[in-house]
Amino acid sequence: MSKRQKRMNRSLGLMLALAAAALVAGLVHLVLVGTHLSEPAATTVYGPTARRLWATTVAGLALVGVIIGGLALARPASRFGTAPGRLAAIVAGLIAAVNGGLVLSVANGGPGSGNGVVGGAGAFVLGLIAMALGGWLWLDPADSPSEEN
């Protein structure tokens, strides 16, 4: 592979990563608008609160689920591509999406209120993505036993 091709691949990867980040940010905003929590708080709370820590922890779990699902998708023959890796992505995504929804349901203010609504919405969206990646791999017809001879 020439230097030019490597540079083009790197540029394409960067553009895809930026597009994915913009898509996730847009989905988080849609979740906040859908739950009527998109208006910023009148007074901003600074520093960590219990709900912010809860939302941050769950968003981290969701990100781990997306990473495991992405690794399983990229390398189906690796240990992440096997059934336990797929199941880990689904379970992490489910836990994150449920807890992200709980954070949003108990919140009584928008961003800046100390309720962790942005982290909860992020956890919800990333949890759904992790479940979709794990489920997509789980239902992959290439792994069905009927194709093995």
List keywords for this structure.
149 residues, mainly alpha, 69% helix, globular, disordered C terminus
Would you kindly provide a written description of the structure presented here, covering whatever features stand out?
By secondary structure, this protein is an all-alpha fold. The chain has a domain at 50-140. It is built from four helices and no strands. The chain has helices at residues 3-34, 50-74, 83-106, 117-138. The longest helix has 32 residues, at 3-34. The chain is globular and about 55 Å long. Mean pLDDT is 82; it is low at 144-149.
Helix content: 55-70%
Number of strands: 0
Structural class category: mainly alpha
Write the element-wise H/E pattern from the N-terminal end onward.
HHHH
Overall pLDDT confidence: 82
Please tally the helical runs, counting DSSP H or I stretches of 4 or more residues: 4
Distance between the termini: 37 Å
Low-confidence stretches: 144-149
Identify the overall geometry.
globular
Percent strand: under 5%
What Rg is obtained from the alpha carbons, in whole angstroms?
A: 18 Å
**Biggest sheet: strands, sense, closure?**
none
